[in-house]
Amino acid sequence: MGHQGGTVLQKDQAVTIKVKRRSAIIKKVVRNYDLYLLFLPTLVYFLVFHYYPMYGVQIAFKNFNPIQGIMGSSWAGFEHFERFFNSYQFWAVLKNTFGLAVFELAMFPIPIIMALLLNQLVSSRFKRIVQTVTYAPHFISVVVLVGMLYLFLSPRNGIINQFIILLGGEPIFFFGIPEWFKSLFVFSGVWQNLGWGMIIYLAALTAVSPDLHEAAVVDGASKLKRIWHVDLPSILPTISIMFILNIGNLMGVGFEKVYLMQNSLNISSSEVIQTYVYKTGLLGAQYSYAAAVGLFNSVINFVFLITFNKLAKKAGQSSLW
Amino acid sequence: MNIGSRSRGDKIFDIMNVVFFSLILFITIYPLYFMIISSFSSPDSINNGEVWFWPKDITFEGYKMIFEHEKIWTGYKNSIIYTVVGTSINVVLTITGGYVLSRKDLVGNKIFMFFIVFTMFFNGGMIPNYLLVKDLGMLDTMWALVIPNAISVFNLIIVRTFFQSTIPNELLEAGIVDGCSNWKFFLKIVLPLSRPIIAVMVLFSAVGHWNTYFSALIYLRDADLYPLQLVLREVLILTQAQEVMDSSLNGGLAELQNISQLIKYGVVIIASLPVLILYPFLQKHFVKGVMIGSIKG
C-alpha cells in the first residue's frame, strides 16, 4: 500500500488504485488457492453439520411429516411454541432448568478461590501433587461418575449411608428424593472439576508481576491482603471471560448427566428442557414440537450471552467481542 | 509467591492452607480409592460397613464375572475402534483447519473465523441434527459417532493460537521467497513444528471419544455396536435405578445383588483404567492445551 505515495488523489487515480487493490486481492486469493483447498473439509463440515441444522430449525414452525421432509412439510407458525407454553410441564421444566443453572453458576467462584490459595502454597512439590491429583477426576466419564454416585448413595449398602448409620442416623434414600437431586448433581460436578477449573486461573496468576508482590510486602501487606489487592485484580479479565463463557453454556446444564441421574422418583426436580426435548422428540417422535422446545432454549441462552457480554463491556471488563 | 519476611499471620495462613489442601486431596482420592478396594472385597463385608480403608475378605469373583461378560468386551473393542477412527478424523481436520485460520494473509480469514465461532453460541439443536444424521444414512453406523462431531470449535481455536504464536511470519516469507508452495510449506515446515499441538489434540479427542455416551444413545440401536460407556450405563445405572425402584428385597435376590454390586465396582475400575493409568504421564500435555487456549480467551 505504501508505494502509492501521493497525497491528493485525482478521480482517475483513485479508480486505478481501486482496480489495483482488487487485482491484488485476487492475486492473493489465487496465490493461496491451496490454502483454500486445505480449508475446504473444515468449511464443508461446518456448513453441513452446523449451518444446515440451523436452517433445519424451521421444523419448529412446521408440522413435520417424515415423507415430505423438513422443507416439504406444511407451516404451523407458532403452534408448537404455544403448546409448550401452555403445557402443564412448562413451568416445572423451566424452573428446574433455571434452578440447576443458577445453582451451578453459584459454584463459579470455587476454582478461582482454589487457584488463589494454591498459588500461595510454599512447597512447590506439594503444589504439584495437589494439581496432579485434583485434575484426575476430570477424566472420569459421566457414566462412571453417576454410577459411582449410585453406588455410594445406595440406601442399602452405600458407604455414605453406612457412615450416617455409624453416626446413629437413619439411611437417606438420596436418589429417590427430588429435593436431593440438584445438590447431588452440582456437588458431584464440583468434585469432578474443581482441580481442572483452576488451570486457567493458575496460568493467569503466573503472569502477575513479582514486583507488585514485593512492593506490597514492603508496605507490610499480609498474604490475604496481597491475594485480595494484587492477585485478584490481576486475573479479573480472565474471570470476566470465563464468566461470560459459563453464561454461554448456562441453559445446557450438562443434560447428559442429568439424564443419567434421572429416575421416576426424582423426575419432578430433574426434568430439564434438554431432557424433555430428547424424550418428546427422539423417544416420542414429536420432532416439530421438540425442536420448538429446543429452539426456545437456544434463544434464551443466546440472549443471556449477549446481555452479559454487553454488561461486561459496560463495566469495563474483558468481553468476548 | 513468597517474598520477604513472613509475619505470624502469614505463617498461620500457610499452615491453614496446607491443611485445607490436604483435606481436598483426601476428598478427591478417597472415593477413587474406595472403588478400588471395594472391587475385591467380599460384598458382605462392604454391606456390613467393614470396608473403609483396607479391602476385606479379598475375592476376585467380581473380576471373574466381568471377564466372562461378553458385552463389556464387545463394548471395549467398539470403544477402541471409535476412539482411534474419531481421533484421527478430529486431528487431521483440526490441524489443517487451524493452520489455515492462523494465516493472517489469507483473504477472508476474519469471515471464516466468525462463521466458525458463531456455531459455539448458537446451534440447530438436537432434533435437526438427528434428522440430518438420519437423512445421511448414518444411523446405526460408526460414522454417526465420529463425523457429526469431527471438529470442536474450541480445539480449532487452540490450534490456531498455537500456530500464530509458534510459526514466525519471517519463516513463511522466507519460504515464499524460496518459491515454496503453501502445501509444501505446510508439510515440510509446519507439520514438524506442530508435534506438541498434535499430541494435545490427540489426547483431548481421544478422552472425549472414550468417555462420551450420548451420541451413541441417540444414534445406535444395534447393541453389538454399543461403545463401552453405553454398556456401562446398563450395568451401572439402569440396574441400580431399578434397585432404587423396588428397594424391598427378598432373600434370593439379595445374593444376586451382592454379585452384581461387586461387578459394578470392578467395571468402574476396568473402564477408567486406560485413562487413569495414562493420565499422570500425559498430564502436562493436557494442561498445556488448556493454557494455549487461554491465551486468547
UniProtKB/TrEMBL annotation, chain A:
InterPro entries xref list: MetI-like, MetI-like_sf, UgpAE/MalFG_permease
Protein species of origin: Neobacillus kokaensis
Location(s), subcellular: Cell membrane
Full protein name: Sugar ABC transporter permease
Top-level taxon in the UniProt lineage: Bacteria
Primary residence: membrane
Family label: Belongs to the binding-protein-dependent transport system permease family.
Record keywords, A-Z: Cell membrane, Membrane, Transmembrane, Transmembrane helix, Transport
Recorded topology in the membrane: Multi-pass membrane protein
Gene3D superfamilies in the record: MetI-like
TM region positions: 35-52, 98-121, 133-153, 159-177, 184-204, 287-308
A Pfam family this chain is assigned to: BPD_transp_1
TrEMBL record, chain B:
Domain of life: Bacteria
Pfam families listed in its UniProt record: BPD_transp_1
Keywords from the UniProt entry: Cell membrane, Membrane, Transmembrane, Transmembrane helix, Transport
Cellular location(s): Cell membrane
Membrane-topology descriptor: Multi-pass membrane protein
Span of domain ABC transmembrane type-1: 76-280
CDD domains: TM_PBP2
Segments passing through the bilayer: 12-33, 80-100, 112-131, 143-163, 197-220, 262-282
Gene3D superfamilies, alphabetized: MetI-like
Family: Belongs to the binding-protein-dependent transport system permease family.
Protein name (database record): Sugar ABC transporter permease
Organism of origin: Neobacillus kokaensis
Lineage: Bacteria, Bacillati, Bacillota, Bacilli, Bacillales
